[in-house]
C-alpha cells in the first residue's frame, strides 16, 4: 500500500508490524499526553515539586535530552566545518535524534512553567543577565536550525522528491548546509553552556556555584564540552539499538569508530577538566562559603560519594579510557558499554547539578529535602521518549536516514 | 528583545546579547529565503527547458 | 552630581530582629498573611507546599537537658543587596519579573510578569520565594476582608515578602500631598513589625542615622544569615547567645574551634 513511499533499494517490515509498533508507542504517548493535559488544566499541584524543589525531574530531563541531543551539533560541526566527510553517513541520524531531543526539551519546558501562556515573556521582557534567557533564545533558535537540517531529509522521501520544487529546495539546502551547521554550532555552544551556567551562577547555592571567566562560570564550559563529548555517544548508542531492532547493519564500522574516537578524546579532555573543577570546588570554592565537601555527600539517605564516583569514574574515566583505544572501539561489546556509560554519565551530571543542588541544605538549621516524582511527572517525561520512538520509526521507514543501508543490505530482486 | 520594550537599555550587554540573536536569526532567514527563491527559479527554468 | 545626590537620597529599608525578645508566638506571620492576602488551604500540614512570607524557625542548640536552649527565628525576605543590586534572585529571573529598587533597596516581585519558571526559587538560599501551586480559594465571605491595596496572586506564579511595599506607596502618596519628599520613621512600618507583641522587630532605613535600625545593626549582638555567601541581606538579627549567632552561617570545623 505504502511501498511507493519507502526509499529505493531497502526492505522494510510489513505494514501491520509497523502499525503495531506505532500503536504500542502511541499508547505510551497518550498516557503522557493525558498527564500533560492534567498539568496544564489543573496546574503544577499535579507534581511532587514543592517550595524546596522548584526545579525537579522535568528540568533534569530537559538538561539531559539537550546534552544527549548535542550529537547533532557536534557531528554537524565535524562534518561541515572540520570536514570529516565519512560522518555524512551518520549525520542524518544525528540530526534526527537532535531534532527529537530539542523538540522534547521545548515541550517539557512548556509543561514545566507555571503560566505556559506567558512563556513569550521570556523573549519580550528578556533579562539579558539571566542564564535562562540565553537558554531560551539559543534553544529556540537552534531548534529552528535543526528543523532546517532535518527538512532536506524529509524532502528526500520518494514521493515528495518527485515534486520539482521540493527536489530543488532539498538540493539547495544541502548546498548551503555548512552555513546552517555553523550557526547551529554557534548557538549550541551558548545554550549548552548557559544550561551549565544555570546552576553555576547561583552564588548563594554553594553546591552548584563555580567561579569562572567574565560572566561565565566553569560549568558553562564543562556543559558544552560534555555535550559535545557525550552527545555523539548517544547517537552511536541509538544507532546500535536501531541496528539491533531492525536486525540490519546500518552504518559502517569505520564511521562509528571515527565518531567514537573523537568522542573518546573529547570525553578524556572533559573528564580531566571535570576532575580539576571538582578538586578546586571541594578545596577552595566550597570552603570559602563554610562548607566541607563531605557536607554535600552525607547526612542524608540518598546522596553519598557513590554518585560522584559513578559520574566521574564509572561513567566518565572508564568510557573515555575505552574509547581512546583502538581495541576498545573495535570490540562491539566494549564500544557499546562505553557509549552507553558516557550517555548515562552526562545524564547523571545533569541530575546532580539540578536535583542534588536543591537537596543540599544551605541554611545551617535546615535539613536535606529529598523528592520522588509523581506519576504525572514520570508520564510527561516518558512522553518524549514515546514520541521519539514514533518519529524514528516513521523516519526510518520512509526516509533515507542511513545512506549506507542499501549497500550494507542488498535487496535480492 | 526589541528596543521599544521598556527593559531595553542601549548598553553593551543588550547589544551583544541581542546582536547575537538577530545575527543568528538573519543567517537562518536569509539562508532559507535564498534556498526557496532559488528552488522556485530552478523549477521554472527546468520547466522551460523541458518545453524547448 | 545628580548621581551622587540620588545615591545620598537612596533609602535602604531593612529590618533588625531581636531574637532575645522573640517568643515564637507567630503574630508576625499571622499579621503578614492578613495584610498581604496570602492564600491558604484546608490542609496546611505539608509546609513545603504552604505559603508564608514570614516563616518562624525553631532553632535548638542540640544539647541534652538541662542544657537545651531554644531560639525562634522569624525569616522574612532578606531583600539581598548582592553586588550592585544583583541579589541572587533578581539577576536570574529571565523575564525581569523581579527587580531590585535602587531607591528603596526593596526586591519586588511582579506577579503578572512572572511566568512561573521558578529559577528564582532555586537561586534563593533562604527559601523566601514560594510558588502558588493552587489558585487561591477564600472561605465564603472572606474575599470581602481582603486588603484592597495588595493584589491577590494566581496559580503558577512565585510570590514573596515585599516589606509591605504598598504601605510605602501609601505613605509616599500622603507625604507628596503634604508637600514632603521624605518619610518619617513611623510613617512606613511593616505589618509584622507592628504586630510583634514583644517589640522584637524594628524596621526602618538602614542608611538613616535617625532611624533605630541604623544604630541596632551596629550592635555587637548583630549578625545576618549566610553572610559569607555574599548575598548582603538587609535583615539583621540580634542575639546575645553565641550558638545562635553561629547558627546564622556555615562554618568549617577549624573555624568553629577558633571561635
- Biggest sheet layout of chain B: none
Helix and strand sequence of chain B:
H
Q: What structural category characterises the helix and strand content of chain A?
A: mainly alpha
Give the integer mean of the pLDDT values of chain B.
Answer: 86
Order of helices and strands of chain A: HHHHHHHHHEEHHHHHHH
Number of separate domains of chain A: 1
Strand content of chain A: under 5%
The number of helices of chain A is: 16
The residue ranges of chain B in which pLDDT falls below 50 over 5 or more consecutive positions are none
- Average pLDDT number of chain A: 95
Helix fraction of chain B by DSSP (H/I, runs of at least 4) = over 70%
Strand portion of chain B, in percent? Answer: under 5%
Gyration radius of chain A, rounded:
22 Å
Structural shape of chain B: rod-shaped
Strand order of the largest sheet of chain A: 1-2
Radius of gyration of chain B, Cα only, in angstroms?
A: 19 Å
Question: What class do helices, strands and sheet pairing of chain B give?
Answer: mainly alpha
CATH architecture of chain A: Up-down Bundle
What would the CATH topology of chain A be? Answer: Formate dehydrogenase/DMSO reductase fold
Number of helices of chain B: 1
Q: Could you describe the largest sheet of chain A, including whether it forms a barrel?
A: 2 strands, antiparallel
Describe the structure.
The complex is a heterotrimer of chains A (413), B (52) and C (259). Chain A has 413 residues and is mostly helical. Chain A contains 16 helices and two strands. In chain A, helix 4 runs antiparallel to helix 15. Chain A is globular. The model of chain A has no long low-confidence stretch (mean pLDDT 95). Helices cover 77% and strands 0% of the residues of chain B. Chain B is built from one helix and no strands. The N and C termini of chain B lie far apart (52 Å). Chain C has one domain: Alpha-Beta Plaits (2-Layer Sandwich), CATH 3.30.70. In chain C, the strands form four sheets. A four-stranded mixed sheet of chain C has the order 8-1-10-9. A two-stranded antiparallel sheet of chain C has the order 2-3. A two-stranded antiparallel sheet of chain C has the order 4-5. The longest helix of chain C has 13 residues. Chains in contact: A-B, A-C.
Amino acid at each position: 500500500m505504502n511501498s511507493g513511499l519507502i526509499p529505493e533499494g531497502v526492505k522494510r517490515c510489513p505494514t501491520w508490524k509497523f502499525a503495531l509498533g506505532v500503536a504500542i508507542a502511541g499508547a505510551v504517548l497518550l498516557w503522557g499526553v493525558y498527564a500533560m493535559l492534567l498539568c496544564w488544566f489543573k496546574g503544577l499541584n499535579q507534581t511532587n515539586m514543592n517550595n524546596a524543589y522548584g526545579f525537579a525531574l522535568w528540568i533534569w530531563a530537559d538538561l539531559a535530552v539537550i546534552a544527549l541531543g548535542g550529537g547533532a551539533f557536534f557531528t554537524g560541526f565535524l562534518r561541515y566545518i572540520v570536514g570529516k566527510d565519512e560522518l555524512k553517513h551518520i549525520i542524518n541520524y544525528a540530526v534526527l535524534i537532535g531534532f527529537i531531543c530539542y523538540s522534547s526539551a521545548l515541550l517539557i519546558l512548556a509543561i514545566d512553567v507555571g503560566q505556559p501562556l506567558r512563556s513569550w515573556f521570556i523573549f519580550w521582557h528578556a533579562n539579558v543577565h539571566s542564564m535562562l534567557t540565553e537558554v531560551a533564545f539559543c534553544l529556540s533558535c537552534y531548534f529552528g536550525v535543526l528543523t532546517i537540517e532535518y527538512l532536506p531529509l524529509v524532502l528526500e522521501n520518494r514521493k515528495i522528491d518527485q515534486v520539482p520544487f521540493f527536489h530543488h529546495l532539498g538540493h539547495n539546502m544541502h548546498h548551503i548546509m555548512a552555513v546552517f551547521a555553523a550557526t547551529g554550532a554557534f548557538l549550541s555552544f551558548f545554550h549548552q553552556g548557559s544550561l551549565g551556567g544555570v546552576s553555576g551562577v547561583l552564588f548563594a547555592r554553594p553546591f552548584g556555584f563555580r567561579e569562572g571567566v567574565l560572566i561565565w562560570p566553569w560549568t558553562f564550559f564543562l556543559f558544552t564540552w560534555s555535550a559535545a563529548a557525550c552527545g555523539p555517544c548517544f547517537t552511536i548508542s541509538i544507532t546500535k539499538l536501531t541496528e539491533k531492532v531492525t536486525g540490519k547493519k546500518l552504518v559502517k564500522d569505520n564511521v562509528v569508530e571515527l565518531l567514537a574516537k573523537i568522542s573518546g578524546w573529547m570525553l578524556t579532555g572533559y573528564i580531566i577538566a571535570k576532575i580539576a573543577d571538582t578538586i578546586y570546588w571541594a578545596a577552595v570554592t566550597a570552603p570559602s562559603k563554610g562548607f566541607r565537601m563531605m557536607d554535600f555527600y552525607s547526612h542524608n539517605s540518598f546522596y553519598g560519594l557513590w554518585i560522584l564516583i559513578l559520574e566521574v569514574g564509572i561513567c566518565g574515566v572508564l568510557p573515555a579510557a575505552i574509547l581512546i583505544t583502538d581495541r576498545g572501539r573495535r570490540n562491539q561489546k566494549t564500544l557499546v558499554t562505553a557509549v552507553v556509560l558516557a550517555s548515562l554519565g552526562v545524564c547523571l551530571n545533569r541530575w546532580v547539578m539540578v536535583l542534588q543542588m536543591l537537596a543540599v541544605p544551605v541554611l545551617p538549621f535546615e535539613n536535606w529535602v529529598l523528592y520522588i516524582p509523581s506519576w504525572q511527572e514520570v508520564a510527561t517525561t516518558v512522553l518524549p521518549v514515546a514520541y521519539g520512538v514514533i518519529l524514528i520509526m516513521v523516519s526510518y521507514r520512509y526516509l533515507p536516514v542511513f545512506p549506507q543501508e542499501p549497500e550494507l543490505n542488498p535487496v535480492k530482486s | 528583545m526589541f528596543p521599544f520594550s521598556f527593559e531595553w537599555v542601549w548598553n553593551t550587554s543588550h547589544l551583544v546579547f541581542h546582536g547575537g540573536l538577530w545575527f543568528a536569526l538573519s543567517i537562518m532567514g536569509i539562508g532559507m529565503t535564498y534556498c526557496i527563491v532559488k528552488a522556485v527559479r530552478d523549477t521554472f527554468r527546468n520547466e522551460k527547458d523541458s518545453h524547448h | 552630581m545628580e548621581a551622587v545626590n540620588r545615591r545620598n537620597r537612596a533609602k535602604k529599608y531593612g529590618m533588625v530582629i531581636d531574637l532575645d525578645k522573640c517568643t515564637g508566638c507567630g503574630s508576625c506571620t499571622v499579621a503578614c498573611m492578613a495584610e498581604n492576602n496570602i492564600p491558604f488551604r484546608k490542609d496546611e500540614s505539608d509546609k513545603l507546599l504552604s505559603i508564608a512570607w514570614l516563616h518562624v524557625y525553631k532553632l535548638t542548640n542540640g544539647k541534652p537537658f538541662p542544657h537545651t536552649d531554644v531560639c525562634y527565628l522569624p525569616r522574612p525576605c532578606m531583600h539581598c543587596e548582592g553586588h550592585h543590586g544583583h541579589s541572587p534572585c533578581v539577576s536570574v529571573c529571565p523575564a525581569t519579573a523581579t527587580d531590585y529598587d535602587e531607591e528603596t533597596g526593596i526586591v519586588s516581585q511582579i506577579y503578572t510578569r512572572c511566568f512561573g519558571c521558578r529559577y528564582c526559587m532555586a537561586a534563593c538560599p533562604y527559601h523566601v520565594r514560594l510558588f502558588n501551586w493552587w489558585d487561591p480559594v477564600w472561605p465564603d465571605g472572606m474575599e470581602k476582608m481582603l486588603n484592597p491595596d495588595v493584589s491577590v496572586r494566581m496559580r503558577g506564579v512565585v510570590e514573596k515578602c515585599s516589606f509591605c511595599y504598598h504601605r510605602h506607596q501609601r505613605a509616599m502618596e500622603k507625604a507628596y500631598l503634604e508637600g514632603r519628599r521624605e518619610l518619617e520613621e513611623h510613617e512606613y512600618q511593616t505589618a509584622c513589625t507592628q504586630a510583634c507583641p514583644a517589640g522584637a522587630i524594628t524596621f526602618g532605613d538602614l542608611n538613616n542615622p535617625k532611624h533605630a535600625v541604623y544604630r541596632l545593626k551596629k550592635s555587637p549582638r548583630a549578625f545576618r544569615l549566610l553572610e559569607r555567601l555574599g548575598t548582603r541581606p538587609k535583615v539583621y538579627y540580634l542575639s546575645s547567645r553565641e550558638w545562635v549567632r553561629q547558627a546564622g552561617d556555615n562554618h568549617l570545623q577549624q573555624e568553629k574551634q577558633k571561635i
